[in-house]
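Could you help me review a protein record that somebody else here produced? This is what I was given.
***
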Amino acid sequence: MLPLEGLKVLDLSRVLAGPYATMVLGDLGAEVLKVEHPERGDDTRHWGPPFADGESAYFLAVNRNKRSMTADLKDGGDLLRVRELARGADVLIENFRRGTLDRLGLGYEELREQNPGLVYCSITGFGPGPEQDRPGYDFLIQAMGGIMSVTGEESGEPMKVGVAIADIVCGLYAAVAILAALRRREVTGEGARIEVPLFETQLAWLANRAQEYLVSGEEPRRFGNAHPTIVPYQTFRASDRYFALAVGNDAQFRNLCRAVGREDLAGDTRYATNPRRVENREELVAELGRTFAERPADDWVEKIRAAGVPCGPVNTIPEALESEHTLQSGMLREVSHPAAGTLRLLASPLLVDGERPPVRLPPPTLGQHSGEGW
């Protein structure tokens, strides 16, 4: 039995943050009913190519383990049906503009009168403050929230992360908050009103980069693939391609030097401790770079790993997905889709009692489960 089996989640969200949160809940066994506009559906249904027989890869990525019904909230009959579903739900999640659902009679205060145990989660662009009525899109949030200023090469332009990470982390925060509210409901019997703003979650996961500024008052800068406070902790170019090296402490540095035949670096007082290595970053990285350029990446990875130092290849997405570990881990699953036929999908990364939760339902076609209810 999956942990959230029997939990009813009404998903009124679109695009990524909300659907990512409900996918996490669905992976853990919740019954997720996704409500979509009858003509256009979720925006991501149209974000492509690529498409699998009309189904966009983007939509397929974040909507497994859900059912889909269509409803036009401007239609009185459809709106009444969604209200009825909300009265029977344990969780409602939405990302409409602030105040929109209140005007439709789907706001928290109205729904809690009929369903006092409802956990109601709103994903917004910005929390309370001057920007609270502005919409939030991942790219804008990455720009405004500071992450682009510390991403990319030191001499290059500010750079977004290669996936919509602000949306994804916001969805994870939303799932955590929902689970916490459900735990409290077990004790009090009362539901909760939760707001998870994209901008504030983006600030929260700045983590050490934000704290660097709060401690020093100095603006954090970009380091490309290097680490601002640990050296060597970056990519290096071998004779054929790049690999990643993550030296986490002084003992690992000494082991690295022995493994690559550079005991002279281990004995150099300039590199004896991590703070000294940070101070002398450029000289040390140049020395290691010259050494690593002499042999292929796989040779270095094998030697360095054998010395107990974290190290690995820089894989492309195909290389990562088709790696032996991925293939044996159960992270890729084949499902039968009503429109696209046999599809390979990513599964949940979580292990419950040692088992990876199944993909119980493929991503639904638009309105595939209309008329079914709970």
Summary: The longest strand covers residues 31-36.
